[in-house]
Inverse folding.
């Protein structure tokens, strides 16, 4: 680097920034001044005990639940400070895969994928058909899945079809609520690979609520743990292993975790011969 060139700063761009978020149902406070950032291009694994508030956080960010206080910024824009039209645009930047797929049973796969397009875009039918087939291919389904109803699909195919719908509007940030639950280990590993591939090819940012240690170990770049109504610890797997919290310890260092083969850590200071 030339002596007089400016220092290179690699600021990570936060796609989602949550600050001091408090959510309560009556007297019951579920999230209390929670802070969280998700950076562009990462796959963030979000874990926490059952009932800790993982779904509540996701639903609050998606504006499906009201918050008591705090700010939510998507792509640098504060939800509370933008116009309704801008808010709708922001909504299209978010794709969501709900826990049980949540496809409409009376609609075919193609029609399910086209729902967000109908809601937000004004496109001719031929173009919507073409886009739906593109998404179907993207998630690894055969083209003939397009005209099938959800009841005609396996669990793994339903997840993929729901993922295709979540990708309908080419979102920046993809929310996945326990995407591998209900899949067998091979189906789950394939789904994880698909998510990693989509991140790499589409430049997606992924927020993945999961209980699946395999997913956390294999595809997540960073992990955040929800506990005591806030993000208790966040960082790499090593940060989780170094954490002293009892729940984090038993989760990441328990018998189940020990039985999983972790990806080899890159060699530190390799010795040259
Ligand atoms: N609409 C609601 N009204 C009242 N309480 C709610 C509502 N939604 C969630 N809760 C409460 O908020 C708490 C957090 O629930 P949440 O579903 O977010 O947990 P979770 O971490 O996603 O759990 P799991 O891993 O079991 O899915 C729970 O105690 C739940 O009962």
């Amino acid at each position: 680097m030339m002596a007089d060139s400016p220092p290179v700063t690699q600021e990570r761009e936060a796609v989602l920034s949550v600050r001091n978020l408090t959510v309560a149902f009556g007297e019951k406070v579920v999230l209390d001044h929670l802070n969280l950032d998700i950076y562009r291009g990462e796959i963030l694994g979000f874990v926490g005990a059952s009932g800790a508030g993982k779904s509540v956080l996701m639903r609050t960010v998606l504006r499906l639940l009201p918050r008591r206080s705090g700010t939510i910024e998507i792509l640098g824009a504060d939800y509370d400070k933008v116009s309704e039209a801008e808010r709708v645009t922001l909504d299209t930047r978010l794709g969501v895969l709900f826990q049980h797929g949540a496809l409409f049973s009376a609609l075919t796969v193609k029609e399910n994928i086209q729902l967000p397009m109908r809601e937000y875009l004004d496109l001719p039918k031929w173009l919507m058909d073409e886009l739906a087939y593109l998404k179907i291919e993207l998630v690894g389904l055969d083209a003939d899945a397009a005209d099938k109803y959800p009841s005609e699909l396996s669990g793994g195919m339903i997840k993929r079809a729901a993922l295709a719908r979540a990708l309908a509007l080419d979102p920046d940030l993809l929310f996945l609520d326990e995407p591998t639950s209900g899949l067998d280990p091979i189906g789950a590993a394939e789904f994880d690979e698909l998510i990693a591939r989509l991140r790499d090819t589409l430049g997606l940012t992924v927020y993945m609520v999961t209980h699946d240690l395999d997913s956390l170990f294999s595809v997540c770049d960073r992990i955040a743990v929800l506990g005591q109504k806030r993000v208790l610890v966040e960082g790499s797997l090593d940060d989780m292993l170094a954490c002293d919290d009892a729940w984090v310890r038993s989760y990441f260092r328990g018998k189940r975790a020990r039985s999983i083969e972790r990806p080899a850590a890159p060699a530190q200071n390799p010795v040259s011969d």
